[in-house]
Design a protein that fits this description.
Blueprint (H helix, E strand, L loop, with lengths): L1 H8 L1 H5 L1 E8 H6 L3 H6 L4 E3 L9 E7 L2
Antiparallel strand pairs: 1-2, 1-3
Length: 64
């Protein structure tokens, strides 16, 4: 799940997890990053129950 995936990077990410901005790698490349993916509607917000998939590009939002 997303908080545990964040915790692999740093334990504070897991403890203070708020949400994850997720885009597929293919869309990330096609739309030249998060900004373009957001403009095209390919970026989505996911919560604590999101199961991370192979190929996800994730920006973790957290507060510690």
């Amino acid at each position: 799940m997303a908080p545990q995936a964040a915790g692999v990077i740093h334990t504070d990410f897991e403890k203070g997890f708020i949400k994850a901005e997720v885009v597929s790698y293919d869309h990330f490349i096609e739309y030249s990053g998060n900004h373009g993916a957001r403009q095209e509607g390919a970026l989505r917000l996911e919560g604590k129950d999101y199961i991370v998939k192979d190929g996800d590009v994730i920006l973790f939002k957290f507060n510690v």
